[in-house]
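Exercise 7.
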Amino acid sequence: MTDKVDAKEKAKAVGHIPSGLFIICSNNGESKEGYLASWVQQVSFEPLTIAVAIGKGRPGYEHIMGGGTFTVNIVGKHDMNYLKHFWSGYSSEDNPFHNGSLELGETDNGGVILKGAKSVIECKMTSKAAPGDHEIVFAEVIGSYVNDSEAEVKTHIRKSGLDY
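Solution. The predicted structure, written as tokens, is:
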């Protein structure tokens, strides 16, 4: 291959990398926040560690980057109604965690559990990297909660590696 390959052409196959859909949530004690993510992956067995991509300015960014506990709510095919709150983001006035439009639970450490999620991973950042326009948070898994063991995980395939 040559370096002169068109960026759109290069990105076609990258978009075909399958991923799940996740709602990354934080709770700093004063406010709960969350955002829709598709770039989450296990990266280590010992310690059990995942990587999460996060763009600057995403809800919960400061809390997560500050080392606060956060949760990865794994979307299942059984219930996707709550996703509408996260597709395009939300204003502080329309925060679905504050207006009662989400059914919530809480982890032992105060993390956010979305009742509609298949399962939830509770994490804490151990390190980070900044390879481009998103930062990669490496987070140790500190808790695991299963809401629906029978539900199938929702997978996501993009049309291009240049957008979500």
